[in-house]
Design a protein that fits this description.
Oligomer: single chain
Order of helices and strands: HHHHHHHHHHHHHHHH
Number of helices: 16
Mean pLDDT: 96
Largest sheet: none
Radius of gyration: 19 Å
Structural class: mainly alpha
Amino acid sequence: MKPKDHPLVTNLKKVTNSKKAAFFPKFFKTGKGQYGYGDKFLGVTVPEQRKIAKSFYSSLSQDDFKLLLDNEYHEVRLTALLALVLKYQKTAKTEVEKKRIVDLYKSKLDRINNWDLVDSSADKILGSFYFDKNRGYLHKLSKSKNLWEVRIGILATFYFIRCDQFEDTLVMCRQVLNHEHDLIHKASGWMLREIGNRNKETLLAFLNQHAKDMPRTMLRYAIEKFPQTERQYWLTF
């Protein structure tokens, strides 16, 4: 079956929006030299994609997911990932079933190639799976030279943060202090903020050690929920 012939793709094409199709390439930076270069868009909103993912996830096979994740259209890949998350959360009952989904996800990392694709799936699949296992794979991703693999590694730890485990995130945030890309500054700052929401003392300890070395974007994201006077204090570093 060709990607364009898959029923999930057909359903997405029924709810396209021409204005969104024109806007998304700019929003997701698809111009030459930009991080989303060459990506294509149908013009389907995320709420519509979630509806379609919910209606398809239980019937999609491994081969379906492989086909959909290779699709040239961004929304097809995102809808497939949303469906894969649902598959993992709702139908994968055994470790064997979960590992099959994780192995599929890992085999398609090159297709998880924009921030929304990463952020909608990394913690829910990889973070969940590796929570009670050796986390070396996630640390390996966070040291990658590939932008999206680094973000996947960092965002996967969001699952750990929600379980009040912070050390993996802190290690990754330290090692990306000198990363060249703003999207990594945003991701690491966001995760630091989430740590601070649960344990402010842990965030303050990180800031006391690293605020002077942090990219401004990372710092601003990390202290976003602080009172204004406290934010101003940290921004003087």
